[in-house]
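To start, an entry.
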Amino acid sequence: MMSKKTLAVTALALLLSQQSFASETEGFYFGGGYYGQYLNLGKLKAKIGGKDAKDDNRVSINDIDAQRTEGQLISKYKGDYNPPFAANVTFGYTGELGNNSYRAELEGMYSSVKVDNIGLSSNQVTVSYLKDVSESANKKTYMYKTVINHDQVENASVMANVYHYWKSDSLSFSPYVGVGVGATRMTMFEKSSIRPAGQLKAGFDYRINEDVNMHIGYRGFGVLGSNVDFEAEVLGEMKAKQPVNPDGKKILELNKSQKPSDQKLHKESISIGNQVFHTHGIEAGLTFHFASKA
C-alpha cells in the first residue's frame, strides 16, 4: 500500500522535474490507479417507523451482550474508518480546449473502509431505543433493540468524469481539476443498495513520454442516502426505579416480563445509516494513450 510519505515524495519529484512534456496528447486513453482514503466522515442517524428518531428515543449503540461497556448515544457515536486499499480503472478521451485541454472518461472504482467501533469490544453491536406507547388511558415506555454488524463500508462505483488541464511549455506538469457523477453499490451493515455518488478532484499530471502520463492529487468522494432497514424487537417496559435518586431524578429500569398487549407493537422497522457518507484522500495513477495524434 502506498503511504502518505511515498505520495508526497512522488509529488515533489514531479514538481522539481525540469523536463518539458506539458503538451497533451490528443486521443483515447485507458488508465488505473490507487486511492488512499485518509479521512472518512459519516454520522449515523436513525429513523423509527419511517420518522426521524427524537431525543426522547435515546437511540444508543452497545456491545451485543451489553455487559462490558456503557452504551453510546447514536448522536455522539463516532466510528473510526481506517484507510483501505482502493483501486480504479478508467477509459476516456483527451481533447484540445484552446491553449489547454480536457478529458472525459468513464471510471470504475472499488473501495473498502474498515470500521473500528471505538469504545466497543466488537463489530457486532446492539442498537436500542425507547418508545412511548399508549395502552388504554396510560402511556407506557418500552425498549426495542436490533443487532447489526458494523464491520466495513464497501463501494463499487461507476462514475462519469470531466477534467480541465492547464498546459504550459515551460513546466513539466499540468495542474487539473475534475468533477464526476455516477452511482455506487454501497454495502453497509452487510446490506447492499444502489446510491447516487459524486466526486471532486484536483492535482498535477506529468507526461512521462508521448504515450504515458502520471497523475497525483486530491480526491473527495461522497454517497447520498445510505440508510439500511432492520427489524427491532421489543424487550420490555421501562419503569421508574424505586427509590428515586436524592436529586429527584427518575431512573428507568427494564422489566422484560412486561410487553405491549398489542402483538403488532412487538416488532417494528428501524432505519440506520448516513444521510451523506464522504471520504477524502490522495490518488495516484497512470494513463496510457493510444490511437492519438500530436
Summary: Residues 4-231+261-293 form a domain with the Porin fold (CATH 2.40.160.20). The radius of gyration is 26 Å. The first strand starts at residue 26 and ends at 41. Residues 4-16 form the longest helix (13 residues).
